[in-house]
Fold GMP reductase.
Amino acid sequence: MYNMENVFDYEDIQLIPAKCMVSSRSQCDTTVTLGGNTFKLPVVPANMQTIIDEKIATFLAEHGYFYIMHRFEPEKRIDFIKDMHARDLIASISVGVKGEEYDFVKQLAEAQLIPEYITIDIAHGHSDAVIKMIRHIKQYLPASFVIAGNVGTPEAVRELENAGADATKVGIGPGKVCITKIKTGFGTGGWQLAALRWCAKAATKPIIADGGIRTHGDIAKSIRFGASMVMIGSLFAGHEESPGVTIEKDGKLLKEYFGSASEFQKGEKKNVEGKKMLVEHKGSLADTLNEMQQDLQSSISYAGGNKLDAIRTVDYVVVKNSIFNGDKVY
Ligand SMILES: NC(=O)C1=CN([C@@H]2O[C@H](COP(=O)(O)OP(=O)(O)OC[C@H]3O[C@@H](n4cnc5c(N)ncnc54)[C@H](OP(=O)(O)O)[C@@H]3O)[C@@H](O)[C@H]2O)C=CC1
Ligand SMILES: Nc1nc2c(ncn2[C@@H]2O[C@H](COP(=O)(O)O)[C@@H](O)[C@H]2O)c(=O)[nH]1
């Protein structure tokens, strides 16, 4: 059994401020390097169909943000890579592990269409299916940076890294539209931050923390506990640009956000581990990204530095389930 004293989640932790070394938060640098490219923020919108589409991917790439396109319209991926490369932008796609995905990878290699990033997007990433796919991609597309997941244990991180993954994605069930924990009894939901720390200690390559981010402060906490990058769904859902229908209810604008393992995504009620919810309309994605950057710059200043790395070593306290005291940001 995992030692319960080491179990905590985002809301249980407060980072402790250190002496400020900048005269303005604008001096704090939030950039991060992953796979040889430098991005404005250590944040990537989730590769889900209600979070990202080709238009958002292009916007993110053009403005210096990392992105991962989802894999739920597989027939569009080749044109997507060509289009991004024609614009001199990074191509970052997702794959699954079924038979046709092996052919797809070979097809890319034959056409010399080499995505800069390939994410293997599977619910239970600690599996031979993912290990085999990592090896397959590394054989046919050795120049692509492979992100593999999702996992929730150090053993899984080691196995995927040993198979050739360049980064691993941590988070089984902490997502807002996730019902894995309820339907299966498994996962890192409720202790995602502790699981991240546990995995990061074993990792020799970057870790992407995935799911459970509810506030911008949680990004800083993820960095503190070992993430190089943070994947976020719900905070990016419901924007003007977000895919999905806008609904007006009681004078309020709402947008749908559904899980990749939901009935809505799958089109059938089979192995459903996700749900659909309506989220409040949030305005423009660019505004949210700017606010995230400002908040992270502020986090860096509280950490007593001027770069993201300053956050990695700050002290923290465990304040079990108490930091919000009923407060809400909005
Ligand atoms: N991060 C998270 O906590 C979770 C994320 N998701 C998301 O939902 C989407 C669908 O995921 P997924 O179902 O893996 O993708 P797929 O439906 O593409 O399944 C991929 C393959 O893995 C098999 N598979 C899936 N889950 C398991 C398992 N628990 N044990 C053994 N084999 C398994 C499937 O077979 P078969 O269907 O026959 O079992 C299938 O052959 C992904 O985008 C994923 O990221 C889903 C759940 C949790
Ligand atoms: N268990 C499930 N997890 C899912 C599903 N669809 C996506 N996800 C995961 O959630 C995160 C986003 O989490 P959030 O808390 O930021 O909203 C996403 O990146 C996936 O890893 C699903 O259907 N079931």
User: Anything to note?
Assistant: The chain has one domain: 13-318. The CA atoms of residues 20 and 112 lie 49 Å apart. The mean pLDDT is 95.
